[in-house]
Write a structure and sequence with these properties.
Length: 249
């Protein structure tokens, strides 16, 4: 998971909190903000204009997320497996919220314009309430990004993840071939928890993947569907085989 993916998750968590507060307090305060805020409302509901609300959320999320420490911006399951202290710092269990001291350390670098905007729109009643407002947002964010990968069987797709045909049977392809699992662990190419990750492919695409690279190459270079689909030969193959349809009996 990249910092861009983490940002998208944080933005969604922040959006949920802002929308919920906006529903409680739909009218902005009279205080003039120092930055962007939502001012246009619909006549029928009094709710904020969705496009402006999205712009408002994007601005706040960007300013807030980039002020966080890099370990929090890039936090993921793999990182917590290598450094368990990250969980203690940023993602205690659901019954143990972040300490106030940690929240204050995380929120202090956030630009004042963010606090002013939240105040102007009535999202928070006072500047001192910023840590309390962000506490559940951070809890939802850290819970999402540190979640363990799902059991492979639960990831079954409705269509081939390469050619996207959805009318033919699928089989699962071990993205890190089982024949090289021992070598992968010994060489430290991947963490052990990644060994059973799979992609759901039609038989034709499954065979193509094994023709395009050796097991070691698949394990080292082509261990995600996204990486595989970046290859030009795979894209050409997918366009061709995607047009192959079975004849009706």
């Amino acid at each position: 998971m990249t910092s861009d993916e983490n940002y998208a998750i944080f933005r969604e968590c922040l959006s949920n909190a802002i929308v919920a507060r906006s529903e409680e307090k739909p009218k902005p305060t009279k205080r003039k903000p120092k930055s962007k805020r939502v001012t246009t409302t619909t006549a029928s509901t009094g709710r904020s204009n969705p496009e402006e609300l999205a712009e408002f959320v994007d601005y706040l999320a960007s300013e807030t997320f980039t002020s966080f420490p890099k370990p929090l911006q890039t936090l993921n399951y793999a990182a917590t497996q290598h450094d368990p202290t990250l969980l203690k710092i940023y993602a205690p269990d659901a019954d143990t919220p972040l300490p106030r001291s940690t929240l204050e350390l995380l929120t202090t670098p956030i630009p004042v314009s963010v606090t002013d905007s939240l105040l102007a729109y009535g999202i928070i009643p006072d500047a001192a309430d910023l840590p309390d407002f962000l506490a559940p947002v951070l809890a939802e964010y850290t819970s999402s990004v540190t979640a363990a990968p799902p059991v492979w069987a639960s990831t079954r797709a409705d269509a081939c993840e390469i050619c996207e045909r959805d009318w033919i049977p699928l089989s699962y392809h071990h993205l890190i071939p089982r024949g090289v699992h021992a070598k992968v662990v010994k060489k430290g190419w991947h963490d052990e928890w990644m060994l059973n990750s799979v992609a759901w492919l039609c038989r034709a695409c499954h065979s193509f993947v094994h023709r395009m690279a050796s097991n070691e190459e698949l394990a080292r270079e082509w261990f995600t569907v996204e990486r595989i689909c970046e290859r030009e030969d795979v894209q050409d193959w997918a366009r061709w085989v995607g047009r192959v349809r079975w004849k009706a009996r």
